[in-house]
Design brief:
The chain is an alpha/beta fold and 409 residues long. The protein folds into two domains: 15-118 and 270-347, FAD/NAD(P)-binding domain; 122-267, FAD/NAD(P)-binding domain (3-Layer(bba) Sandwich), CATH 3.50.50.60. The protein is 27% helix and 24% strand. It is built from eleven helices and 21 strands. The chain has helices at 8-12, 25-36, 57-61, 74-77, 128-131, 146-155, 175-189, 211-224, 272-275, 319-337, 386-404, and strands at 15-21, 42-45, 50-52, 71-73, 83-85, 89-93, 98-101, 106-114, 119-120, 137-138, 159-164, 196-201, 227-229, 232-238, 243-248, 253-258, 261-263, 268-269, 304-306, 350-357, 360-366. Strands 1, 2, 5, 6, 7, 8 and 19 form a seven-stranded mixed β-sheet that branches. A five-stranded parallel β-sheet has the order 10-17-11-12-13, covered by helices on one side. Strand 12 (196-201), helix 8 (211-224) and strand 13 (227-229) form a beta-alpha-beta unit. The structure holds flavin-adenine dinucleotide.
Length: 409
């Protein structure tokens, strides 16, 4: 049965046993697990009628998947028996245990799961909001632009292509560089790579946090002749002049570069209403929600749990991390509902499928200690592999739709 949004006030009235804010990867996974465990009074607040499988947006931008294949109706992924309120959460008062919704109503809850994802701050880089989607500027970070990335890559035969990575935490830390490799491999196959200058701009001192994979990525960038700017970021864009300002934080210099293609990844932060709420971690300038890094429970409000991109956890924000966080939140929430101390622990597992060519991938999986935690221990995932690319393209999407979102995997 497909869910439909609950009609107005009658669905909002009363105090709800569990309220889940956000029906993306994290919110749906937790709701499905709670339903499987027999919880009956679950209310989901989600404004969108579309659910996106964002990990494929990289391949949309690289011309290897259609945007349509990344989209399903929100109604089709909401578990049976979960009440859907199709509104925005606008504020949360964890002392009163209420969430203010668009339209002005207040939703009262006993337990709260915070999963509204993060916010793309296009305005944080002068000129970017105006330029993206025009002027040869694209971004795989929004579905309206990802197909445009492929149009630009396909048409390019010479010139300068710039790929940027913001200095804030972001969803899928590998995505800003994966698209550079997909583009470079395409240009290599088209025999135009030697006519294209590729600049990859990264804020960190290395290509990847875990040295084992950083070493392989150094070989990948060298193979394509990519100019890597470490400790650097994009600080302004002028779409009319097709110029981007790159700031090198290591030596405090700025350079204005003319581009023919700019793949821009915007700075990211918690949604503004979350930043302004008492749930935001006061130690985090970007306003992500405070959560114990193992139990995912809020340190001040034990009836609140956070997971996914909105949670302030010292690991990379990915759907793969959500897959491991959801069972922990569901189990610990069930304990909290019974008045017990949560005991399930999340170890920081995250995974970055680093696509390095149009048919090759490195599967980087690691935990809070940056210790590799391979799902397939017998396979050498420190080298680029075709089977891993097939895994990302053809195996992971059905695993997501039929396993993760239904609370089975
Ligand atoms: C280009 C790209 C490539 C990626 N590649 C990978 C990859 O290869 N592997 C991987 O594991 N991950 C990847 N990711 C990251 C992954 O998609 C996210 O980490 C994951 O979707 C996080 O889940 P979430 O539920 O926290 O957020 P989301 O899935 O973004 O869901 C948030 C939900 O909250 C809703 N919402 C927003 N505001 C409100 C509000 N005010 N009230 C109520 N609801 C609200 C939204 O509509 C949305 O449905 C990629 C992401 C991008 C953009």
């Amino acid at each position: 049965m497909v869910a439909s949004p609950s009609p107005h006030n009658q669905a909002i009235a009363g105090r709800h046993r569990v309220a889940v804010i956000g029906g993306g990867s994290a919110g749906i996974s937790v709701a499905a697990r709670l339903r499987r465990a027999g919880v009956t009074d679950i209310t989901l607040v989600e404004p969108s009628d579309t659910h996106w499988y964002q990990p494929l947006w990289t391949l949309v931008g690289g011309g290897q998947a259609s945007l349509r294949s990344t989209r399903r109706s929100e109604a089709s992924v909401i578990p049976d028996g979960v009440r859907w309120i199709r509104r925005h959460a606008l504020a949360v008062d964890p002392d009163a245990r209420t969430v203010t919704l668009s339209g002005g109503d207040e939703l009262a809850y006993e337990h709260l799961v915070m999963a509204p994802g993060l916010q793309l701050d296009w305005d944080a880089v002068p000129g970017l909001a105006k330029a993206v989607g025009h002027d040869r500027v694209s971004s795989n970070y929004a579905p309206e632009y990802a197909p445009r990335t492929w149009d630009l890559i396909k048409r390019m035969r010479s010139g300068t292509a710039v790929f940027t990575h913001p200095a804030t935490p972001l969803k899928c830390g590998g995505a800003p560089q994966k698209i550079a490799y997909l583009a470079a491999d395409y240009w290599r196959k088209q025999k135009v790579l030697d006519r294209i200058r590729i600049i990859l701009v990264l804020p960190d001192p290395t290509l990847f946090k875990v040295p084992e994979w950083a070493r392989t990525l150094e070989q990948v960038t060298a193979r394509y002749g990519i100019e890597v700017r470490l400790r650097s970021e994009m600080t302004a864009v002028d779409g009319d002049r097709r110029e981007v300002v790159l700031t090198d934080h290591a030596n405090g210099t700025e350079e204005t570069v003319h581009y023919d293609l700019l793949h821009a990844v915007p700075p990211q932060s918690a949604p503004d209403w979350v930043k302004d709420s008492p749930l935001a971690d006061p130690a985090n300038p970007l306003g992500f929600v405070a959560a114990d890094k193992h139990t995912l429970q809020h340190p001040q409000y034990p009836n609140v749990f956070a997971l996914g991109d909105v949670a302030n956890l010292p690991t990379s924000k990915t759907g793969a991390a959500v897959r491991k966080q959801a069972p922990v939140v569901a189990a610990n929430l069930l304990d909290a509902m019974k008045g017990k101390t949560p005991t399930r622990r999340y170890d920081g597992y995250t995974s970055c499928p680093l696509v390095t060519a149009r048919d090759r991938m490195l599967l980087a999986e690691f935990d809070y200690d940056l210790k590799p935690s391979p799902t397939f221990p017998l396979i050498n995932t420190f080298k680029e592999r075709r089977d891993m690319w097939v895994f990302k393209r053809y195996v992971l999407p059905p695993v997501y739709w039929h396993g993760m979102l239904t609370g089975r995997l």
